[in-house]
Amino acid sequence: MSSDLFGIPIQVILGQLLLGLLNGGFYALLSLGLAVIFGLLGVVNFAHGAFYMLGAYATWMLLDFLGLNYWAALVLSPLLVGLLGVILERLFLQHLYKVNPLYGLLLTFGLALIAEGVLREMFGASGQTYPVPELLQGALDVGFMILPIYRVFVIVMCLSVCFITWYLIEKTTLGSTLRAATENAPLVQAFGINVPKIVMLTYGAGVGLAAFAGVLSAPIIQVSPLMGSSLVIVVFAVVVIGGMGSILGAILSGLSLGVIEGFTKVIYPEASNIVVFVIMAIVLCWRPSGLFGKE
Amino acid sequence: MMRTLQNIFYLSLLLLGLLAPWLGVYPVYLMTLYCYAIFACAFNLMLGFSGMLSFGHAAYFGFSSYVTAWLMTQQGWSVTTAILAGMLSACALGLVIGFVAIRRSGIYFAMITMALSQLVYFVCLQAPFTGGENGLQGVPRGGLGSWISFQNDLTLYYFVFAILVAVFLFIQRVVHSPFGQVLKAIRENETRASSLGYYADTHKLLVFVLSATLAGLAGSLKCIVLGFATLSDVLQSTSGEVILMTMLGGAGTFFGPMLGAGIIVTLQDMLSDRVGSWVTVIIGTIFVLCVMAFRRGIVGEVLHLLEKKKGH
Question: Where in chain B are the domains?
Fold first, then answer.
């Protein structure tokens, strides 16, 4: 096939669309966790990128040190990192809910620095490679383009986890308790629900989502101490664009920004790094509370 | 009583600063420290006196440094004009970023400034005039006219020191001016300040631009002192460092940010050769300690203690 669109081969466009969906899936998963944590704790979790990085490292370590394969890591890494999140919430974050939310941001920034420094000291600044699991190796030829199976798997996983989280929060009793606690914690507490415990577990779950994204990314990119630190800033921009309180907004804006970024790579590669930030500036001038935010 | 004590303290600091190069302290180290002190004071103008946490001040610091370095190496400008041009560019950048960022406050403001400074970082990484990963090197020191040369460390030292003192006095003047008082009112209660007829957004944008311009001055000076402009000055970690300096010393105090800058620069200077990546861990730990244990910062805690004593 040699058809093209505006002088750009259609294969290139589809390839970037796939890559954009892939990145968008990661943005969606990470900004979803960020939104869930912010909704209940009022904390902007700067360490989100660090937890994503820890998830990838946990995956790599489980294979390298314990010989546990990808599928085990897919379950274990988020649990381990989530547990770490729970411990950190009990140790530090729970003392900050009553003070200015900026302190939560600064604390998690400090925690992220510690995590990055420790891992760089342990394993060096260069990246570790992780093999694509055997079951998902190879590519599918669907006629008009070649689809690498693992990447498709990642996109599907991201989307389904996003959907499950959205469903849990919006459609179940657990979710309605969670939303009620977001609205009015003392009242929910008065109904006999252990709000501090919910808060703790929510932080653990949000962090676990970040780690899950880390596991998925391990076979695609190099596992390195700094892999999360620049990503988290893009995710912040995504969250500002979507409006922080909205779960669906986080998912939709994450996905679409990934795709827009992918297309920018085709049309004007130099701008692909900054397109998300430019969109953020435009959205802020037009709708300061974000596309899906309510104020 | 308190006033006299304060004056004695500042006068002895001034004297110490004037004598420091003769006491065997390495001038370049001191000058670097002063640049960061100016940077932290500029930052404090926003965080301490206006209650706005910018998470992207490295953008102005680093960009101004690039502009100064480029003008001096490629265009042959003199030191003073190149520094002024650097400040002007930081001012313009602050105006644009500030215009977007002040639409939100608090936590959103922090995230927006962070994202926009990352944009500046990518521009610096890819723009043709910044030398990419290598940065701009071999920036000459020049001098004032033809009769004072900055090749001599000592001459440059007094130049930088004089600017530090001037910035310090300027910030004191700004904070105590009616403008500074309105900023304080906005910090405490923006709605009430607006209802009293003050334009909150205009004041916030003005202090943003002022702070960015002074941060630019710090960046340009640093590039003259060390002779290069690098990507690390625009990096997000630099934005984090200036927050830490201000918080550790005491946000909202006049001397705090300088003390904080002194501690962090000294720490990095002493440790970076010996412990490698642990520096990041140590900085992170200080962050956690500051947030958990002493949010007023060192100077803030001391002032608080003194006031408590006076109350008894």
Answer: 27-236
Of the candidates B106, B125, B280, the beta carbon closest to that of A116 is on: B280
Q: Are B288 and A121 in contact (CB < 8 Å)?
A: no
Domain ranges of chain A: 22-225
Distance from CA of A143 to the nearest CA of B (A): 37
pLDDT of residue A244: 76
Flag if A278 and B119 touch (Cβ within 8 Å).
Answer: yes
Residues 6+ positions from A163 with CB-CB distance below 8 Å = none
**pLDDT for the residue A5:** 66
Q: How far is B102 from chain A (nearest CA, A)?
A: 10
Does A113 contact B118 at a Cβ distance shorter than 8 Å? no
How close, in Å, is residue A273 to chain B by CA atoms? Answer: 7
Q: Which residues of B touch A253 (CB under 8 A)?
A: none
- Token readout for A267 is 């049309």
For the record, the structure tokens of B300 come out as 């803030």
**Mean pLDDT score across all residues of chain B:** 90
Nearest CA in chain A to B123: A274
pLDDT confidence bin for B4, thresholds 50/70/90:
confident
| pLDDT tens, position by position, B143-163 | 777 778 888 888 899 999 999
First to last CA, chain A: 50
**What ipTM score was computed for the predicted complex, to two decimals?**
0.88
Q: Do B111 and A112 touch (CB under 8 A)?
A: no
pLDDT at A295: 55
Number of residues written out for chain B: 312
The span from the CA of B66 to the CA of B219, in Å, is: 8
CB contact under 8 A, A101 and B126: no
d(CA B43, CA A193): 43
- Do B291 and A288 lie within an 8 Å CB cutoff? no
Q: Please write the tens of the pLDDT for every residue from B179-193.
A: 999 999 999 888 899
